[in-house]
Amino acid sequence: MEKTTENLLIWYAKHKRNLPWRESINPYQIWLSEIILQQTRVDQGTAYYLRFISAFPTVFDLAKADEESVLKLWQGLGYYSRARNLRLAAQMVVEKFNGQFPTSYDLLLTLKGVGPYTAAAIASIAFNEPVPVVDGNVFRVISRLMASDLPIDRPSGLKFTREQMLRLIPSNEPGNFNQAVMELGAMVCKPVNPDCNACPIQTQCLAHASKITSNLPVKAGKQKVTALNIRYAMVIFKDQIMVRLRSEKGIWQGLYDFPELTFEHDEIGCLHEAESLFGTKMTFVKRSSTFTHLLSHRRISADVFVLQAEQLPIIGKDCQLIALSALTTVPVPRLVEKMLPLAENLI
DNA sequence: AACGCGGGGAG
DNA sequence: CTCCCAGCGTT
């Protein structure tokens, strides 16, 4: 067993809080507590848990309650669909599973209001299935332990966290391990001012070793979407295409893209601007599936118009001029990442 | 992939 | 005051 796992289990056995739902491994009680604790702090949820257990001691009592009384008991907790799904799930357990909670992660997932986190929590705590939980605490502990800067709100960060938990989880007591990681996140490895001196895995913690604990976990956050309507001139000469280096100011500083035209948004304006810019008569001939494909492949939505000069302009024989109109709704930070390789491909 | 759900705490 | 939290269902 990993030293990290061992230290966590020993620490948990000694320091875990005495919470009412930890007094048994009855799946009904584990399930009820996990639903209540979704998006809810322990000190707010505890009183609700006790009232629910008192009003509905078994899953049968909850299944035959009317929705009104369940909602009344839930009053003040928020996210009321949890309460409605709670009753529906209880009815599913009674009707589809003969009153016995399903014992596997996959079957637990079929219950209303039970998603990947809750199914893993119940399966591991009540049925010893070695499936890792991933919640906010786990994201924090794992990203710091491994000094991972993968964004936890993106698929890459979720995948990494699951893999690391899978690596560390012991098959003999997965429930205690899952709870240990979450408890550590709640009590020691806190979002701000973590108590690293009290941490049982400080020695293994790569963030602590690099003194970057306060920078983790990393979140990509909501990307602000900015619409940009850009018209490019693409000047192609034989097997070469003209790109320009953007200035050091504004977006895409120092990156390559095509020469930008500043004309109005309709095609006629585009035509006139291009004609005066390049000093020759021009006309639209077709939409270019090639460039549309090039851009959409890179997840930039774009309209592409191809202009063909009647006479080949400035550069001379074998030169083709193309105007490319790109209306993008890509988050600016992402577009920056994509512009450089796009230009590099064409250079 | 993005949004809505809600009360509570932080800034 | 506004912003953010964090699992789940829906679209």
Helical coverage, percent range: 40-55%
Rg, please?
A: 29 Å
Biggest sheet, in brief? 4 strands, antiparallel
The pLDDT mean sits at 76
CATH class of the largest domain: Mainly Alpha
List descriptors.
single chain, 347 residues, alpha+beta, Endonuclease III, domain 1, 2 domains, four-stranded antiparallel β-sheet, two-stranded antiparallel ribbon, 15 helices, 8 strands, disordered C terminus, DNA-binding
What does this entry show, briefly?
The chain has helices at 3-15, 27-37, 42-55, 59-63, 67-74, 81-96, 105-108, 116-127, 136-145, 155-168, 174-187, 206-209, 267-278, 289-297, 332-346; strands at 228-237, 240-241, 244-245, 256-257, 260-261, 282-286, 306-309, 319-328. It is of the alpha+beta class and 347 residues long.
Explain the overall architecture.
The protein is of the alpha+beta class. It is built from 15 helices and eight strands. Strands 1, 2, 5 and 8 form a four-stranded antiparallel β-sheet that branches. The protein has a two-stranded antiparallel ribbon with strand order 3-4. Strands 6-7 form a two-stranded antiparallel sheet. The two termini are 53 Å apart. The chain binds a DNA duplex (11 and 11 nucleotides) through helix 6 and helix 8.
